[in-house]
Structures
1.
Amino acid sequence: MPLPESQAVLLVVSQLGRLVRPSLLTAALLLLLRRYTAVHPPTWAVPGLALAVLPVYYAVRIRFASWHIQRRAARLGAALPPRLEGRKFGNWDILQSLTESFETDYLSETLFGYMHTIGHSFELYILWDRAYVTDDANVVKAMLATDFNTWVKGDRFDGCVRSVLGTGVFNSDGDMWKFHRSMTRPFFTRERISHFELFNRHADDAMSKMRARLAAGYAVDFQDLVSRFTLDSATEFLFDACVHSLANVLPYPHDAPAALRANVSRAASEDFARAFAAAQEAVNFRVRMGNIWPYFELLGSKTQAHMRVVDAFLDPILKAAVEKARVEKTMPSQQSKEEIGEDETLLDHLVKYTSDPTVLHDEVLNIMIAGRDTTAGTLTMAVYFLSQHPDVLRRLREEILSKVGPERRPTYNDIREMKFLRAFINETLRLLPAVPWNVRYPVKDTLIPSSDPEKPWFIPARASVSYSVHCMHRRKDYWGPDADAFDPDRFLDARLHTYLTPNPFIFLPFNAGPRICLGQQFAYNEMSFFLVRLLQAFDAVALAPAAHPPADRVPPAWRGAPGRKGVERMWPKAHLTLYSKGGLWVRMTEAQNA
Ligand code: HEM
């Protein structure tokens, strides 16, 4: 697999080379003058002028670039989006504040603040690099759907993620993306996505694990538990090689005896999960840093070591699948590519298209990233909301008990009919969407809708435009004055027709347009199934604050702050996907009817 960040040093050297090119050219010119003409600048003038030319050159260049962009915008009858102005040279203070707030503040808080003051689409001009940010549903609609062909994930995003994702459906564009998408799509048919037997086995494992730990008197990290559930389900569903992470000992909480906590040995599957998460964290940092990320990896790649662990886990599974396909190819009953066999895994399906280990590796990792952490993160947030809203939990249980009863396994039709369950999942995805931020790049100079219908905004080719569904999902002008409140009924009552039905692009947890999430129905089924099983078994959930690692607890200073920051009792963070900092430590009460 190519490792672009191993070329970080080369990239930086070439960037520096480009940066000092005017000085080198000036020095060369002066030396030529000295040698071949009667003009003899003094020796000190060569380095002096070579250095002095740099600020002048860049001042002129920056001015010219701004003028040029203005001209291009004017030619298209457009205006420039408002710019966020900092106080320090190069808007360094904005970079500092964004970086710091990412570490210490509530999710997207700083950007949310900017959107309130400057507007819902604006320009970030940091170190003379233009980037744009939006939470405007009309802009997002254009990017994802109506003007789809103009917007790509692009080579800048690809450069950031390639050392983790390789080339797959998630980070490719154009024909390559079509190839990956068409290769994967047949797998997500209704029959495949409603194979509940597999979820059932893993959900049962998760419940018994949780029961045992709770019975021993300790809180459970639900985020860890459900990540194991989705890891076991995904590895079985995708390549029929379940890693059985649920068989390993669960972590003990912060308030358990130290000896107990120290004794939890880490299994290979956990190393895989941790390494995978760490690699995504590194990638997210790169995406946030934009063009300058290679400068942070001059001393070495931040993903390479993690990916070695991931690959050590994955490669034997891939080899076995290719070998299995090789053996089966000789058999007469070989199916056509499009037909998906009853027990066929994604990997079985992919090896019909290719035996190239890199393509298989990348595609499988893409689907793992796309599908596993998103579902685990959403279930974590769902249980968090249950802990804060016992009334919602009670209503959900009522629906579950009346439709499915206390023990039976839910069917596809049961799940389809559980309207409150769907509304509950949607409300979770609204306030804490699994993919809170995303980015696209226009392939050419383009226009986006502005606040003035007569004058769109201009976006230059190849500039990054980050869009936040997280911020969009909380806008009061889109969702009403109670937008910050957790209330699943907004997906069922008159508010649905007032807000969402006329403007469906205000709710995009799965994206929209041709690149809409391939696993959306699969995810709804998996999450619904798990929640039904969970609430058949338990009838109360409470956070266990003392069990939470102290450094990861919600800062007391947040209490009473405006918006959700003031009411949140766990710390939502995002790498590529959303998670709760330090886990989600809970206690649950077993239902009497279970
Ligand atoms: C709560 C669960 C999920 C959420 C919120 C979610 C959300 C998303 C989002 C926002 C995207 C668009 C990413 C982008 O274009 O930048 C996406 C793409 C994708 N998702 Fe999901 N996803 C979920 C579950 C799943 C599952 C379970 C699978 C598969 C098993 C899956 C497979 C995919 C794939 C393959 C893509 C790439 C589509 C493309 O680029 O053409 N997702 N998902």
2.
Amino acid sequence: MARTIPVLEIFGPTIQGEGMVIGQKTMFVRTAGCDYRCRWCDSAFTWDGSAKDEIEQLTADDIWRRLEAMGGRRFRHVTISGGNPLLIAALGELIALLHEKGMRVAVETQGSRWQDWLLDIDDVTLSPKPPSSGMDTDWSALDQIMERLQADQSRVRRISLKVVVFDDADLAYAKEVHCRYPGVPFYLQTGNADVADSDVDALRAKLLSRLEWLVEQAADSEELADVHILPQLHTLLWGNKRGV
Ligand SMILES: C[S@@+](CC[C@H](N)C(=O)[O-])C[C@H]1O[C@@H](n2cnc3c(N)ncnc32)[C@H](O)[C@@H]1O
Ligand SMILES: Nc1nc2[nH]cc(C(=O)O)c2c(=O)[nH]1
Ligand code: SF4
Ligand SMILES: [Mg+2]
């Protein structure tokens, strides 16, 4: 029997709005469940119970059929996010199927958990959480994930680190992460403090001013001499709308 995967949303084609593959046309598969509870999580419905009736247990085949029904032949890239997809061993079957279908596969995770299928991902984004999230980083877990990914040369993959920054303490944390893993492409992302705001114009203005602040901070920093600084492009375009 094929194993099932708890899925909360499948959407696209859209663009990857964040990080290393920003702008890439992609489909999204969002899994349910997270081992973290970030204060400012923009996808809290994946773990806070508010969308529990929308969770579907789907096999890899089911998910592929949904992706095809929505995206036809108009996509070549699939992003798996959550929640934390790394809680779900059965995603290995989906990743194998997506590769068989000629897709490239990306994953978004906070870097707290390992699954062997992580070695099969083409675009790996690890997003450890800064102090403003209220979460503590398990550095030994993150070290091990980074070592295992970097030791495996069996495929070409892109790895990046992405830290969301709201304040000075987050910025200090971002520097710590970047210094700990030198040579790994490093992204600073503006934090969205208003995840329930439905006024898109007001939100855009706030996010752009946060981006300006973040650029200024990085400009003045020697430790952040070689970083990328980005907003969440999808939030600038569509605000806090789900499924985009
Ligand atoms: C919803 S998370 C799901 C994947 C995984 N749990 C993680 O956190 O990396 C996807 C991305 O959104 C970012 N994110 C979540 N809430 C945010 C917010 N309020 N502002 C900016 N980025 C946010 C996370 O840091 C992560 O990089
Ligand atoms: N367009 C778009 N880009 C994204 N990049 C990361 C997302 C996520 O929620 O993981 C996300 C999302 O929800 N939408
Ligand atoms: S780790 Fe990701 S999904 Fe989990 S609570 Fe934090 S931002 Fe949300
Ligand atoms: Mg999101």
